[in-house]
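Q: I'm writing a short explainer about Helix-turn-helix transcriptional regulator for a general audience and would like to include a description of its predicted shape. Could you first generate the structure from this sequence?
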Amino acid sequence: MGQHNISSVAHLIAEPVRSVMLITLADGNAMSAGALAQAAGVTAQTASSHLAKLLDGGLLSVESKGRHRYYRLAGAHVSHVLESLASIGPVTPAWRNTPSRSAQALRFARCCYDHLAGQVGVAVTQSMLTRGFIVETGERQYALTAPGCEWLQQLGIDMGDAGFDHADHARRCLDWTERQYHVAGPLGARLMDAFLEWGWMQRSPTTRSVTVTALGWDGLNRHFGIARESCGPD
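A: Of course. Here's the predicted structure. Afterward I'll give you a sentence or two in plain language.
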C-alpha cells in the first residue's frame, strides 16, 4: 500500500503542468483555477482536469467563495515534499548565476509555505544558532533554548499557543537553493508572521519572493547581525 501511494503521488507531481501548479501554490496561498492555468500556460479546461487529479490525490484542497473556487496545498507536508524534491541534485552554476530577476529574487528571499527561505532565511537561522537561541537536536530538528525564549519575548513574539511544547516546534528544512538549513515549523511560521507584521518584509502578490524593506534591514542588522551585502543582491 505504501509503495502504491508513493508511486501515485510521484506520478502526480512529475507531470510538468501539475508540478508548476504545485510550486505556484507552495507559499501557502489559495489561487483560482484561472490563475493557476495562466501560471502553467494551459487552457482553463486543461487546468481543471489537472486540478481534479491533484484533489483526488490528496495534494490540494479547495474552497468555494460564491461562484469561484480557490485551490491551495493540502498542508505543509505537501510543501515539504516539494522542497525536498527540489533539493535533490546539484544547483547548477547556470541557475545560481542566472540573469533572471525573478529567479534571483526567489533565491534571495522567498516563502517556503509559511516560513522564510532563501539566502535571508538561511542567514536568520545561522544567526540564531550562533547566538545560542536555537540548537540542533537531531537530523530534522532544532530546539528553542531558554535564552532563545527570552529573546523572542523581548522582541514581542507571542509564544503562548504556537505548539512550542511539541518536539517539532522548530524543524530543520533543507533550502533547495542554498543547500543549507533554515528553520521551519511553528517557530519559523511565527518569525515570518512577525517580519511581515513589523513591516520588515513584504510578500510579492504574484510569486513566492519576499522583499526586505529598509526598516527590515535595520531590524535584521540590529537583532540578527545580518547586513544587506552579506545576503547577496536584493
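A: For your explainer, you could say: Residues 37 and 45 are 9 Å apart (CA to CA).
Q: Perfect, that's easy to follow.
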